[in-house]
Design a protein that fits this description.
With 285 residues, the chain is an alpha+beta fold. Helices cover 58% and strands 14% of the residues. It contains nine helices and nine strands. The chain has a four-stranded antiparallel sheet with strand order 3-9-4-7, with no helix packed on it.
Length: 285
């Protein structure tokens, strides 16, 4: 239930709604700052930024608590924890606009991260969809359509014009042109003849050819490529690991500076300001 609420509130449309309410509260603040009369004063019985705090703050607190519970070691301390503390500190001193602002900044960062991840997943799904599912096997001088999983190394296959080559193999009969852009990036189809190698997942453009399967299943080129992309998605890039380390150190540094600022000045607003100022650093990371 809580996870479902998190997914709803962290979506694009809810974040846009949160941004609109933050804007409704931000414009009057700016007008009032420059000596004008504050508009929208009697429209809302509460500060509009409260809506932003609820929409963007709930996923933030949920994420920070989840990492504390499930993550190990220093990874329990995250940028989400820093911004959650800054948000609650701003609420504690009555600056609801600042609380909504830091929560909204993190919500924007989450949307950017989600968009990047989704684009990578979309590319993987497209590649998987291009993987052949059936092949035309030659058995006892007959052509039989069989699932690609049942094709063994050494089987004889026939590929007609326009069909996808099911597995890696070597041409033993015929000539053709193969579109192998999925594997090599070549924009122009390549001519193939007897004894030339062909790759699974590439497209036979013109002539009918017979091949002998050389690499099948997980050993085929397209399956290796799919597996490489899956592994790349599961592993953190070095820059991401560095960002996680810096984020875990950013929290205690921010807290230390905030406490020093409060102890020197005796003003809690100074300490809260330090936490709020540190929040965009999390978005950059």
């Amino acid at each position: 239930m809580v996870h479902r609420i998190h997914d709803i509130l962290s979506g694009l449309y809810m974040t846009i709604l949160a941004g609109l309410f933050l804007l409704l509260d931000g414009i009057p603040h700016l007008i009032e700052e420059f000596g004008g009369q504050r508009p929208f004063q009697n429209i809302f019985p509460f500060e509009p930024s409260w809506i932003t705090v609820i929409i963007c703050g709930f996923p933030l607190v949920y994420l920070s608590i989840r990492r504390i519970v499930y993550n190990k070691g220093i990874s329990k301390i995250s940028s989400a924890l820093l911004i959650s503390m800054a948000m609650f500190a701003a609420i504690a001193i009555g600056d609801i606009f600042a609380a909504g602002e830091v929560a909204f900044i993190m919500a924007l960062g989450a949307l950017l991260e989600e968009a990047t991840t989704e684009r990578a997943k979309k590319g993987l799904k497209k590649l998987i969809s291009l993987a052949p599912v059936k092949g035309r096997k030659i058995q006892a001088n007959k052509e039989i359509m069989v699932p690609v999983e049942s094709i063994q190394s050494g089987d004889y296959l026939r590929i007609l014009p326009g069909e996808t080559i099911p597995v890696d193999g070597r041409i033993i009969n015929g000539e053709t042109t193969v579109d192998q852009s999925i594997m090599t990036g070549e924009s122009i189809p390549v001519d193939k003849t007897i004894d030339d190698d062909v790759f699974g997942g590439t497209i036979n453009c013109f002539g009918a050819i017979d091949i002998i399967a050389t690499k099948v299943g997980e050993d085929s080129s397209i399956q290796k490529m799919i597996q490489l992309i899956k592994n790349a998605e599961q592993k953190q890039a070095p820059i991401q690991r560095i960002a996680d380390i810096v984020a875990s150190r950013l929290v205690p540094i921010a807290l230390m500076i905030a406490c020093i600022g409060y102890l020197i000045t005796g003003n809690i607003i100074v300490g809260v300001t330090v936490l709020v100022v540190f929040c965009p650093c999390a978005l950059v990371l």
